[in-house]
């Protein structure tokens, strides 16, 4: 049996740079990122099945009733959800799995998977956050204000997470996340047993699932 992979949850307010940081993290590492489902309309350039699975509200509600989601939440008026079976399959097969989800979703995952690694991405300042959401150019004025106001409340949930990473420079943020993941893999309380191979004299570790 493979060692199970880590469940790494990257979360934080809209516009802090979660998507940007995750993309850079995946360019440098062999992690598996979960593709969520959403009822939000696709933005220019977004591809169904890559950015998200874009569903109608009815399709999304069907999936809720079929218990298909590890977690789901209503975020800024749309539903977003993480597919359950695929994420569990990947972790069990030994892949390190990244979830890029909002704070409500992260807290739900934490209830069921306290062994996950919960990382909160912070902007360098609220002024910079506003600039980033505005410059991204994807939101209406109303949606921009909703996201910005929510960010003030969402930062209060930082204490529920294991790690805080300020996304000032993308490369620094990615370096920090890589260090967190490496340290988490070395944690003694993640090791169920160490087996000494009597022939080879090698140490094998078995991780908790
Ligand atoms: P989120 O996924 O958290 O909503 P995005 O990754 O879409 O945020 O980033 C929001 C905007 O900020 C994007 O236009 C992105 O290019 C920009 N951005 C992300 N990280 C940085 C950074 N470290 N410095 C400057 N701009 C950034
Ligand atoms: P956006 O509309 O900007 O792509 O995403 C809005 C928010 O929804 C972001 O904070 C993003 O992280 C979050 N999100 C994306 N997928 C999921 C998901 O599967 N579950 C939850 N709870 N939030 C998600």
UniProtKB/TrEMBL annotation:
SMART domains reported in the protein's UniProt record: GuKc
Enzyme Commission code(s) on record: 2.7.4.8
GO MF term list: GMP kinase activity
Signal peptide feature range: none
UniProt-listed InterPro entries: GK/Ca_channel_bsu, Guanylate_kin-like_dom, Guanylate_kinase, Guanylate_kinase_CS
Sites where the protein binds ATP: 12-19
Record keyword ATP-binding present: yes
Residues in Guanylate kinase-like domain copies: 5-182
The keyword tRNA-binding belongs to this UniProt entry's keyword annotation: no
Subcellular location: Cytoplasm
Keyword tags: ATP-binding, Cytoplasm, Kinase, Nucleotide-binding, Transferase
CDD domains linked: GMPK (cd00071)
Known catalytic reactions: GMP + ATP = GDP + ADP
Described function: Essential for recycling GMP and indirectly, cGMP.
Similarity comment text for this entry: Belongs to the guanylate kinase family.
HAMAP family linked to this entry: Guanylate_kinase
Protein name stated in the entry: Guanylate kinase
């Amino acid at each position: 049996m493979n060692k199970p992979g880590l469940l790494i949850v990257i979360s934080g307010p809209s516009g802090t740079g979660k998507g940007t940081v995750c993309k850079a993290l995946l360019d440098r590492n062999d992690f598996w990122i979960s593709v969520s489902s959403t009822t939000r309309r696709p933005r220019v350039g977004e591809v169904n099945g890559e950015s998200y699975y874009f569903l109608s509200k009815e399709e999304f509600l069907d999936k809720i009733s079929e218990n298909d989601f590890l977690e789901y939440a209503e975020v800024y008026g749309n539903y977003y959800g993480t597919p359950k079976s695929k994420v569990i399959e990947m972790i069990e097969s030994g892949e390190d799995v990244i979830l890029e989800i909002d704070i409500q979703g992260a807290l739900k995952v934490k209830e069921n998977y306290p062994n996950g690694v919960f990382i909160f991405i912070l902007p360098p300042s609220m002024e910079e956050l506003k600039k980033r959401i505005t410059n991204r150019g994807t939101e209406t004025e109303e949606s921009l204000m909703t996201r910005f106001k929510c960010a003030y409340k969402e930062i209060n949930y930082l204490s529920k997470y294991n790690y805080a990473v300020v996304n000032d420079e993308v490369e620094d943020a990615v370096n920090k996340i890589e260090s967190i993941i490496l340290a988490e893999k070395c944690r003694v309380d993640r090791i169920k047993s160490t087996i000494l191979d009597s022939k080879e004299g090698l140490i094998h570790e078995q991780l908790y699932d």
